[in-house]
Give the backbone structure.
Amino acid sequence: MVIGDAQHDDRISPDIAQAMGARTVISVPMRLLSEHIGMLGVGTFKPEGIRLPSDEELNFLEDMARNVAAVAGRLKIAEDRHRAVQERLDLESRFFQAQKLESLGMMAGGVAHDLNNLFQVILGEAEMAEMVLSSDHPALENLTRLTGVANQAVELAEQML
């Protein structure tokens, strides 16, 4: 887009043209494949006055816009690759963390299972001892407390499982 006199052209806000002191404005679109990614703009200002570009200057600006768009595209590709690498590293980190937690859970489950087995043996032995003792035997009260505590331990081990 070539605007000969920005001060008097409807395509540019008069306030912006006045504030910039712009006279001739040239804007060349920058495209990456079919995507519009920006504009390359040049212009003349008050001391220079109005000066329309030659075909050679327009071709130069179009080439410059293509080159800038190509560089921007390469930067975008590099940025996308960097982002993909970061995402992969984050996913790997979360995966390894999940594996650690799974291993810890399996280990805790195994320990809880083994503890439950030991407490079941204690309960069985305590019940057998209670059966052979007379109802007035002094150790019976201790066995009853032992059975109660062992049952609490079994419940805790089941919660861990």
User: Anything to note?
Assistant: The chain has a mean pLDDT of 87. The first helix runs from residue 14 to 20.
